[in-house]
Amino acid sequence: MPNNQRYVNSTRKNFTDAELRKAQENHSYVANRFPEEFAESEALIKARGLGGHREITAHYLANKSPMDSHTIKLLQTYADSTYEGPFGRGRE
To answer: Distance between CA 52 and CA 5 in Å, rounded?
Structure first.
């Protein structure tokens, strides 16, 4: 299973439907409000194969701002050790 699918499955296990909806709403807001910065962060996320990662969803659940490049690079470093969430809740 590719990393992205692992990340997506874990994210679904770690967040409620309401939390996922709220994160998606904030994600859409950021795309409309900050198009240039959003495009940059999305390109970095895609280039690093981090789409669907739990930490990205958590960011957009809590923030209405694009992810900065430092955070994305840091996430890449620990992506495979943090995707499961607390207590291995999202483990495959």
So the answer is: 8
The overall longest dimension of the chain from CA atoms, in Å, is 36
Distance CA 83, CA 90 (A): 7
pLDDT, tens only, 62-86: 999 999 999 999 888 887 766 655 5
Domain ranges of the chain: 3-83
- With beta carbons less than 8 A apart as the criterion, state whether 46 and 7 touch: no
- Torsion over CA of 3, 8, 13 and 19, rounded to 10 degrees? 140
- H-state helical runs in 1-92: 3-14, 17-33, 35-47, 54-62, 69-82
